[in-house]
């Protein structure tokens, strides 16, 4: 909660006692408002950032170290170049985080109407009967990163 919001809440709940005594606020209201100030909200970060924070804390890095020593991880290096992401990283480190849901995609070959699917062992195959959604990272790791640049492939973003 921001200071402006806090002031507005006090203004909403003020009670005039008299001309000379000013305003009073019910103590229960004050306690409730200050509880809201004390509860920082976790920020949302991508999975790879959550993994980096966990890894860095597990090996005893400080926040400064985790934000400075990311040469070994290109994905983090690219993400951390933006000031907004650096602030998000610091807040996630201090107050905790939630992992953002990654976008998921259905991938279909336009000419044959086959979808990319996965069997129970994780093996990827093409199927008319089964549809399965994948994250971009899953597709890239399976050697299918090219589907995003191929005009013969239809990509449909789907909900989690």
* Backbone structural class: alpha+beta
How big a fraction of the residues is strand?
A: 15-25%
Shape: elongated
Sketch the major β-sheet: 3 strands, antiparallel
How many E strands?
Answer: 9
| Number of separate helices | 7
Report the helical percentage: 40-55%
Distance between the termini: 30 Å
Oligomer: single chain
Strand order of the largest sheet: 8-5-9
**Structural Rg:** 25 Å
What number is the mean pLDDT?
A: 82
Query: pLDDT under 50 segments (min length 5)?
Result: 16-22
Order of helices and strands: HEEHEHHHHEEEEEHE
Indicate the topology:
Blueprint: H1 3-13, E1 15-18, E2 22-24, H2 27-38, E3 43-45, H3 47-58, H4 63-68, H5 74-79, H6 83-95, E4 97-99, E5 104-109, E6 115-118, E7 124-127, E8 134-135, H7 136-141, E9 153-158
Parallel strand pairs: 3-4
Antiparallel strand pairs: 1-2, 5-8, 5-9, 6-7
Keywords:
3-stranded antiparallel sheet, two-stranded antiparallel sheet, 160 residues, 7 helices, alpha+beta
Word description of this protein:
Helices cover 41% and strands 22% of the residues. A 3-stranded antiparallel β-sheet has the order 8-5-9. A two-stranded antiparallel sheet has the order 1-2. It has a two-stranded parallel sheet with strand order 3-4. With 160 residues, the protein is of the alpha+beta class. It contains 7 helices and 9 strands. Mean pLDDT is 82; it is low at 16-22.
Describe the structure concisely for a colleague.
With 160 residues, the protein is an alpha+beta fold. It is built from seven helices and nine strands; from the N terminus they run αββαβααααβββββαβ. It has helices at 3-13, 27-38, 47-58, 63-68, 74-79, 83-95, 136-141, and strands spanning 15-18, 22-24, 43-45, 97-99, 104-109, 115-118, 124-127, 134-135, 153-158.
């Amino acid at each position: 909660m921001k200071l402006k919001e806090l002031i507005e809440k006090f203004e909403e709940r003020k009670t005039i006692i008299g001309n000379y005594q000013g305003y009073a606020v019910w103590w229960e209201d004050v306690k409730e408002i200050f509880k809201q100030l004390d509860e920082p909200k976790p920020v949302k970060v991508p999975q790879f950032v959550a993994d980096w924070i966990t890894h860095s804390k597990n090996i005893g890095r400080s926040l400064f170290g985790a934000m400075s020593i990311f040469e070994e991880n290109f994905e983090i290096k690219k993400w951390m170049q933006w000031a907004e992401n650096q602030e998000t990283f610091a807040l996630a480190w201090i107050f905790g985080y939630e992992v953002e849901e990654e976008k998921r995609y259905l991938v279909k070959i336009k000419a044959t109407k086959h979808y990319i699917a996965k069997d129970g062992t994780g093996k990827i195959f093409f199927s008319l009967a089964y549809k399965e959604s994948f994250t971009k990272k899953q597709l890239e790791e399976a050697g299918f990163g090219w589907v995003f640049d191929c005009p013969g492939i239809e990509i449909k973003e789907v909900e989690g």
